[in-house]
Structure prediction request, 160 residues.
Amino acid sequence: MNLAEAADAGASVDPIVLILSSAAGGAIVTALFTLFGTWVQSRREHKRWIRERRLEAFTAAYALTKAFHLNLSKQMKIARKKGTKRTDPDIKALQAEADSLYSTAAATLAPLIILGPDEVAGYASDMQAAYEAEDWDALRVAELAFQDAARKSLGVKHRS
Prediction:
């Protein structure tokens, strides 16, 4: 076989090899982009799931603290209206309601503590401590800090 024949034979093989290698390369690139796209989508879905669970946890924690506060306000209102007898049936009913709130506190706050962030969980703890101490100024400061930290964590801008 002379050089011209060898060149012609090689020229007929090169396009086939080129087509096969292009197809294989295209399949590999497609598979890699598919895997990358799947990974990105999985990360987005996980972030969305965390954000939704945090919103639920933040809302529940804030509602729990407000329920305690409203319960105490009702007790104080009844006490002022009827006198300060702790044996009054209305006050006893409200105290029982407060006791049931205490029993739900751990279950309500657990998702917040687990899902975090720690800053938000800390402010929830500060709200509860201020309520327990009946320090209304500290409670208001803790509530505002909790709200701001929760908004920041969720990526929600505060509307003025």
User: Anything to note?
Assistant: The radius of gyration is 32 Å. Helices lie at 3-82, 89-115, 118-132, 136-154.
